[in-house]
Amino acid sequence: MRMLKNPKEEQKPAEIAPKQTSGFLKSEDRILWETVARTTRPLRPVAKRPAFAIEDMHLWDMENGLNIPQRVQAEPVKAATAKAASETSLQTRKKQETVTNPLHDIDRPTIRKIAKGRVEIQARIDLHGMRQREAHDLLYGFLADAWHRGLRFVLVITGKGTSMGSDGVLKQAVPHWFSTPLFRLYVSAYEDAVRHHGGQGALYVRLRKTPAEKLAERQSLQLNKRSLS
Fold it and tell me: What is the CB-side half-sphere exposure of residue 51 using CA atoms within 13 A?
């Protein structure tokens, strides 16, 4: 008598033997793959990134607690050092220029002598109505000529600056010009003139001594010392 199998008993599927493949695509599969590969496009464009950059190395070292490479800091340090040296050199040069030809004030006794005519105003120049460039060049030539002639006191008329014209501009510009190295070669001191010479619209200017005058003074002092001894 043949035994019947229980229908509730799970039937095991027959094992399927693995299919042997040669490891190579068939010609029709290869054609299909090449067609799909040619028509495929990336979803987003990928930006090209350099393989290595100085910034990457800098961040990497910071994260790992390493010293920052010297070449990353070299340029900023070099630029800062050069800037500091340039500023120091400029300040030193300005100090040297100021010490070489300093400006002084004309003392009050001398101003009183000029006002009373006891000290002669040997030349004068009127800059009324001139533009700054014209006035600058003319004033410089006037002072240079007076210095070479051995003059001592001159009068420069600028205007009081009560109007809106060039007079007010020159009243402010001329003292500034006197403070520059170009004019300090000739100008030793300046001061506002008294009323009858123009008041605040004019300047008494004392010129420096020429080398010949300085030499004569030294020789005179030496002769006085010898005579006293």
Answer: 0
Alpha helices in 15-122 (DSSP H): 27-39, 54-63, 70-100, 108-115
Q: Does the pLDDT of residue 33 top 90, yes or no? A: no
E strands present in the chain: 123-126, 153-157, 187-192, 202-207
Sign of the torsion formed by the C-alpha atoms of 213, 216, 222 and 224: negative
- Contact yes or no for 186/208 (Cβ under 8 A): yes
| Of residues 140, 137, 127, the one with CA closest to residue 185 | 140
User: Helix 54-63 and helix 70-100: axis angle, to 10°?
Assistant: 100
CA distance 41 to 57: 33
Inter-residue contact 58 to 69 (CB < 8 Å): yes
Q: Report, as an integer, the average pLDDT of 190-204.
A: 93
Q: Is 117 left (phi over 0), alpha (psi -120 to 50) or beta?
A: left
Residues 111, 186, 155, 151, CA torsion sign: positive
Tokens matching residue 147: 């210095």
List, for residues 113-130, the tens digit of each pLDDT value: 999 999 999 999 999 888
DSSP designation for 153: E
Give me the percent of the chain exceeding a pLDDT of 70: 55
